[in-house]
Amino acid sequence: MSFTIAIIGRPNVGKSTLFNRLVGQKLALVDDLPGVTRDRREGEARLGDLEFTIIDTAGLDEGAKGSLTARMQEQTEAAIAQADALFFVIDARIGLTPTDRAFADFARKANKPVLLVANKSEGKHGDAGAMESFALGLGDPIQVSAEHGEGMGELYDELAKLMPAPVDEDEAEDDEPLSEEEAATRPIRVAIVGRPNAGKSTMINHLLGEERLLTSPEAGTTRDSIAVEINWKGREFRVFDTAGLRRRSRIEEKLEKLSVADALRAVRFAEVVVMMMDAQNRFEEQDLRIADLIEREGRAVVLAVNKWDLMETKGGGAISTLRRDADHWLPQVKGVPIVAVSGLMGEGIDRLMQAIQDAYALWNKRVSTAALNRWFEEAVQANPPPAVSGRRLKLNYITQTKARPPSFVLFCSRADAVPQSYLRYLINSMREAFDLPGTPVRITLREKANPFAHKRKRPS
Fold it and tell me: Following DSSP, what letter does each residue of 391-457 receive, concatenated?
């Protein structure tokens, strides 16, 4: 049975740094600015032979009812309710503050085991603050430095007393390779990206059926890329909510740069990327930049036009216009699935989830070599490659090297002379012939070896 621990404390005491240390990756954004973490983030942690689930939370702080700060605290309370034990973190260099004392009472009322963690205790700077923390009545403080990895042994000793005994590896089930059927049913990794305030978090909350992610009319509410598990009609998805992507010239603050980098990392990790646009401001320049980024990363892509409930015209004519606009503005992913949705009202959710599964299937598609070369011969005959510098290009044959995305190698006589326009023709023809709408297609040119190249020329 999984053991879950929530890291709580006031803002800027190093909770996210401790979270990153325990999961062994820099998953949570870290900055000197207080209040960086807003949504709760889960990860699989390991400390020695102890394995457990760790939850990073927003800093406990007081705020007016209904405010963003108050809803951040509600996220923290939900994490506490989910946890089996708590890490109450203080800043040992600063010592106790009135906020620490107030929320120590909050932690005690949770009626769960609490480990008092005096962070930033490197050197001798944290000794005084650690001694002060005895006044909280939460037991002996464990002095650590999450940034430098100091004190992890002491933390292990105290945590081991709370957790159930680890399962003996000899008694555990063997890790057998996944069968094809199991691989086909594993969670699809999906990243939701778009400009700020496009409704990404609202959409995911509707999929989950709960207010799991913070939402606000204010742009830039989401900072970290938060992963959530979703089961939709028996199919598992791991969905990443990301920070809004603005134009690079408008990104000035260091924290926003970190958020954008985290969002781009989520795109690279994903298998399907849902690019979300505002129905009333669609296909703006930044939308096109984001779509181009997704295509260059080689991810399957689905366009979701959100806030469709606010549109005055919603009939088939409006959908046809969306289709024409998508093909016009995004020729590099011609035929990309486009779905009109409303994350707030739940409209179009079924169509969106089906489009994600269809895009994922195309992204994994393989074409037989025989069918591929039959198409290739017909395509070349219908539109032969142009002569370059008075010399005819010779295209020999094509083969698929991999899927995810579909990638092909074209053997030819002069790879550097094949025009990009002719490659686009081949890609568009391939999309139609093998039903590959929207998914990125890669064609790499390779020169066929000349069997006579090693022979010397006859002397004249």
Answer: B---EEEEEEEETTTTEEEEEES-GGGS-HHHHHHHHHHHHHHHT--SS--EEEEEEPP-TTTTSPP
What is the spatial distance between Cα 325 and Cα 322, in angstroms, rounded to a whole number?
A: 5
pLDDT tens-place string over residues 7-18: 888 888 888 889
Phi-psi region of 435 (alpha: psi -120 to 50; beta: other; left: phi over 0): left
Question: What's the half-sphere exposure (Cβ side, CA atoms, 13 Å) at 416?
Answer: 1
Which has the closest alpha carbon to 310: 338, 279, 282?
Answer: 279
Omega into 405 within 30° of 0, i.e. cis?
Answer: yes
> Measured between alpha carbons, how far is 213 from 227 in angstroms, rounded to an integer?
10
CB contact at 8 A, 316 and 174: no
Per DSSP, 178 falls in state P
What would the two tokens of residue 175 be? 């890790």
Expressed in angstroms, the distance from the first to the final Cα of the chain is 83
pLDDT per residue as tens digits for the range 220-243: 555 556 778 888 888 899 888 887
Q: What is the CA radius of gyration of the chain?
A: 27
Instruction: Return the exposure string of 239-277: e unless at least 16 CB atoms fall within 10 Å of the residue's CB, then b.
Output: bbbbbbbeeeeeeeeebbebbbebbbbbbeebbbbbbbb
Rounded Cα–Cα distance for residues 7 and 14 (Å): 10
pTM over 0.70: no
Give the distance, in angstroms, between the CA of residue 64 and the centroid of all CA atoms in the same chain.
Answer: 32
Torsions phi, psi for 388 (to 5 deg)? -120, 125
Distances (CA, A) of 304 to 197, 247, 301, 379: 14, 20, 10, 33
Residue 388: DSSP 8-state: B
Structure tokens at 206: 């509707």
Question: What residue has token string 């605290």?
Answer: 73
Helix count (H) and strand count (E) of the chain?
13, 15
DSSP assignment of 37-97 equals --S-EEEEEEETTEEEEEEE-PPP----TTSHHHHHHHHHHHHHHH-SEEEEEEETTT---
Q: Is it the case that residue 154 has pLDDT exceeding 60?
A: yes
In Å, the largest CA–CA distance within the chain is: 99
